[in-house]
Fold these 4 entries.
Entry 1:
Amino acid sequence: MTLQAALRSAIWAKDLTPEQMARVEADTFETFVPKGGYVCRKGEMVENWLGIIDGLVKMNNFSSTGKSVTFTGVPPGGWFGEGTVLKNEVLKYDAMALRDSRIARMPAATFMWLLNNSLPFSRFLLMQLNERLGQFIGTVENDRLLNPDTRVARCLASLYHAHLYPSLDKIVHISQEELGLLSGASRQRANQALQLLEKQGLLSLDYGGIRILDLEGLRRYEA
């Protein structure tokens, strides 16, 4: 997918005027981030609103002792960093590429211009922030209350969100290592959980990905 196609297919772009879309396409640029590289780093001053054209990115932080906490994973079609752009402050988290990723970067000035000139875009951002808050509340609950099998199920389900991540199809191209990093489990433990979920008919393990058979079942799953 080209950068232009990614921008035009974004959920927030559907109600922009031709003039607004033209400015977005003129100002937004693409960068490549290799697996393990940083899309952005904690402490940096925010300069762009970020979208995933291709790849997979996790938002996480490290403690002073090196312990990592993952907030969420962002698949293709997802955009993030709007809260930091709105507050014009330094980043409070790292964003790392779990695989080679293509990143769309909309300059903060363009983002703020859209916010001030497009009512549909403003409405989109209101929903985006509300949905992100709900997602993070669910993540905290999962991490503190649920066992690894349930965390893996809920992690997979969280990648399917009509507002935050509208572009994902029924096959998630994610490795067991990547799923473990997102759900707070080892690769081996994530594999055990996937085997269990497959036996229960919620998903099937295909070559190169995971086919979702019962999304609502994954969302409700509790071991």
Entry 2:
Amino acid sequence: MKTRQLASTGIMAALIVICAWITIPTVVPFTMQTFAIFLAVGLLGGKLGSLAVGVYLLLGAVGLPVFSGFRGGLGTFAGVTGGYLLGFLLLALVMWLGERLFGDNTVVFLLSAIAGLAVCYFFGTAWYLLLYTRTTGPVSLWTVLGSCVFPFLLPDGLKLALALVLRRRLHPALQMK
């Protein structure tokens, strides 16, 4: 890995941390993490963007307070919202797959980001439903979707639009490949 790639990956991991701290607390907190993930993959490409997400998750796993609410540690992954954290990596990997299969252009970026976000929502919701049912009791899928997915659709769409605008402006100057 070249020094520029390593530094850019670290900067994007740090941006994800900062965006995690921008939080509106709810059952599943509103944060800017998805924006940072979209931007990391959009600017660095799928490989380095996914690596930045992985670094972010590893920093949190070892206990650094990098997640929303300044939380960290393996216990965060074991909680009901831990699936969404792991879903962030799936989001980046789906975007990388889209880039590998169909190239690096705006349409592929947009469609792979939407597909990756759907995978993140699916994985996180399934995790939430499973753990909540085990620890608290039965809950309906519609209740979980109403708390964990539906309120996030518009904000995540706006984050994707912002990342798309920044990507189009910055991508030509930051060619990492």
Entry 3:
Amino acid sequence: MSYPIDIEQFHHTLFKLKGITGVESGVENLEPIDADMLGYSDNAHLPHAALLRTGGGMESEVLLQLEIEFDYSPESLVSVEFLAWFVRDCARAGTKVQLRPFALPPESPIGRQLGTTLKWHMDLFVDGIEETLEPAFATVRRLNESLETAIRLYHIPLK
């Protein structure tokens, strides 16, 4: 199947932006998630506000989540700002996508971690998932094509 290449290509496009140091992704079935489950630490990565608005996951819905790490440099802030605009513009055009910050608690049993755990989650909600994830991968293909076009159109600096 060709769908892993779609996600890998999207990772590659994001990773080309200056200051982006890592991109990881995963797919989660949201249908069984209800609002009560959001308090569990296993669900800390989920987009809580979005799921609280709907009382949990929707029928036949998956979350494709990309976790984007950056190096805290001025160049990375430019890349994050560009991605924030890009995601907002895609959402305005009808894609169910959002970009949100994600961080761990300021203190942990191993010490202070404030200032070291900030990442960005790009949450892509795809419904109509019945037997395959192809609708999600088709959405990723479209997003990647749009991102590549925006990078060229706006002359976004790359590594």
Entry 4:
Amino acid sequence: MRICVLGAGAIGGYIGTRLAASGAETSAVARGATLDALRAHGWRVDDAEGVRTTAPVRATDDAASLGPQDLVVLAVKAQSLGAALPSLTPLVGPGTTVLTAMNGVPWWFFQGGFGGPCAGRTLESVDPGGRIAAAVPAERVLGCVVHMSSSAPEPGLVHHFRGTGLIVGEPDNTESARVREVAGLLRAAGLDATVSTEIQKDIWYKLWGNLTINPVAALTGATGDRILADGLVREFCHSAMAEAQEIGARIGCPIAESPADRSEVTRKLGAFTPSMLQDARAGRPLELDALVGAVREIGAAVGVATPQVDTLLGLTRLAAATRP
């Protein structure tokens, strides 16, 4: 099987390493210092105890030289996907599966017949003009929800802290032969892969937890434990989550628990650094559109007012635009 990772950072690098260490032949499309590191050292992952795993990879900045793949692990940040299209499209052929290991609402979310009043809708917040959907239609996609914590302290090196969970599913919510095959491949690589026939619900549930903690962390510089320890901030987060919960109920992604229940689960993670805070500290663009902007857009489409989500989006967007 021809497997290529596009987005060889904290998540893509970890998945690529596990696949290659299990014996799969992998390639990666990268550039700059990441490309140089992969060519020099191959895949590298350090676990929480400092034990390093290495594995070979064919690294290139020319996706066309690789040609169509059987599996593309798409692990770029959502805000970078438009710019990455020239590298993605040469990898996608008639038999290619694109595994979208990304945060937030993806471009294909409503393209598989899911979403009630939003079924078939293109989200301008994540796919302006429908460019991504035109290049990578939903039938090429497998959704993927990532439940692991990793960082990339330097190009081409991953620190893995906890978790190996991946939920994979078809956009049309069927249990296909290919989703079973990909899940089996991931399990053989030591990843805790499960098949879902409700992948949009899984995506929305993860987003529900990330919607507030991530941008508040980027705004304040606070870790997750400090955010939830402040009563006023916690209640603001819960109000924004309640808006997203109502939106979810209208598009087929109901959530039974309360925002307070979800916060108790998050509190158990301790003093963790959300990914958006990691990006803010590194001066990288933030995943605001996929995590927050898409919620606002969908809310407007289904008639749910989102004053708290709007406030969070506006403040974080402004902070990102004006930071040194």
